[in-house]
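Q: Can someone sanity-check these two? First one:
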Amino acid sequence: MSKRDLKKYLSELNKNQLEEQLIELYDKFKEVKVYYDFAFHPNENNLIKEAKLKISNEFFPIRGKRPKMRRSVAQKFIKHFISLGVDAFIIADIMLYNLEIAQALSLEKQINTIAFYKSMLNSFEQAISFMIEKGILEDFKNRIVLIKENTQHQNWPNSYTFNAIVERFDY
């Protein structure tokens, strides 16, 4: 069904029928429930705390396990926040937090997998692109430069690429 067909169908329904359909969608689909729960009670602080806790747990597990260092955990939150329409500053903060917590781990522990560094570079590039798209890059300048400098101080094998990305913006 195209969007035009959907609009036509919805315009033919009365108010009660529309309400019934929305309630049915709310009951049947978790995504609809999550969206409306956020739309009416946008408690972004709890979302941020939960996201940061789970991301930090990937690198510094609460129970003495080995860190999993999965980029996908942060990516899942970022994608979810974008779909909910969370403020771009919050999304950018989560993106940079993921990199900062990864650097905190690499400062404490030598990481020998090249996939980790490549993954963090992808996260950095995604964060920069997102901030450019939203026009908020300048607001995160200090954190971006600090991340770049940390890659150099910690001798990340791809630190030159982080440096090249930041140099393009003439910081």
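And here is the second, same format, sequence then tokens:
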Amino acid sequence: MNKTELIAAMAEKAGISKKDAEKSLTAFTNIVADTLIDRDRVSITGFGTFEVVERAARTGRNPQTGESIQIQASKSPKFKAGKALKNAIKA
């Protein structure tokens, strides 16, 4: 499902216009992104948790040459599914 399909599904399920659904989705994604930028978590009970994880610097290998390279530390967004979501997928 892409963004356009998601907006259409949200509009139909909620009984709102596609324009309102798009505004809601945009607001949600902006709030999650802003919260993660501030290094905080977003927890939606039953659905899951969005958070930022920090990866330490490490030594890796260039697969083409086998040469050792230094990989810098980084921060990445992470989503952990909640119990209700996991159970819904299992069914």
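A (reply): Looked at the second one. Residues 14 and 21 are 8 Å apart (CA to CA). The helical segments are 3-14, 18-37, 83-90.
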